[in-house]
Amino acid sequence: MSMVPTHRWARVLVFGPVLALLAGCQLVPQRPIPEPDPPAVQPARESSGPVRLVDAMDALQRGEFEEAAGMLAALRQASPGSPTLTLLARQLEESPEALLPGPYRTLRVAPGDTLSEIAAREVGNPLLFVALARLNGVDQPRRLAVGAELRVPQDSASPAEDQTGDDALAEPAVAAVEAGEVIGQDDASPEARRSELETVAEYLLASGQPTDARELLLAAARDRELSPAAEDLLVELSLDSARTEVEADQFEAAVATLAEATAVLAPGPGRARLEVRRTRVEVFEQLARAEAFERRGLLLEAHAEARSALDRDPDYAAAQAREAELREALVADYHDRALRAWRSRDIDLAIRTWDELLEAVPEFEPARVYLDRARQLRRRLDAPE
So what's the pLDDT on residue 85? Predict the structure, then answer.
């Protein structure tokens, strides 16, 4: 059996988290049930329009393999170069043992696991969930019981590593995704690749899997395979993800999310929106640090964070208001401390306190007047008799 180079598996693994829930989503919208008469193949579907990849995926998730095979055959006639359709169809046409050869080991399904996640993790391709279901007698791939035991190829736990001999993943499965590509193939047109990619991304989003849809679009954007509509979707999903992370006070994660999407998009309105949002998230993070410093009584540090946030986004009203509040609190606190030191004849403490205040709020003139007096007094006290 020929070996698949390691770099091909690395590219396959890029899509592991992308389609990780294809086989496990419980929220897939249900299709209308076809009329039972006449009993010909898909009469209702033919009358309602062409077969869609979404419909085939729905059928595979429900375990309706015969129906799915018919839909995939029709789709392959329209898109003969599609690697996704090829791999899905071969899992119905060939034995699962041929695609996922033994020897096998047993794993137990953990909470949150799906067959596509397990396929991505164990054999390096999430689309092999159908073969994995058939190998284990799972009637409905999307219904995977927690605690169930599954057979997986024994030596496939680290598919990115070199594998040799009969324990490696079977060549037929790999051939369907040449060079590790889950979406797109050299003999498919760019338009066909983009259409299929958008279909899968929209399917994931409609199935309640926005994170996986975003990962798919990110991977495609790195190869400049996105249409304008897909770019818009990537921007919206990235903004939504960052918003959720900000609400959970995960500011660094939100910045990373926005930076990741910004890096793969060409200059344009979408990228500009991401850059504006990234700046705003960084301001949120600074204002959160300012609040934490204020709670600890560290007004100097709190004001510095708020001032930096305002410098970063001068038009942001919340930053303006917060900086003004902390400036007022800082002036009141430090000026009062300096005056008490002055009255108690602790000239050095008064000088240090007014110095710190003026460094933070140079426009506070009363502190400058008192500081000049304090320095004059210090010079007189230090002068020789």
Answer: 82
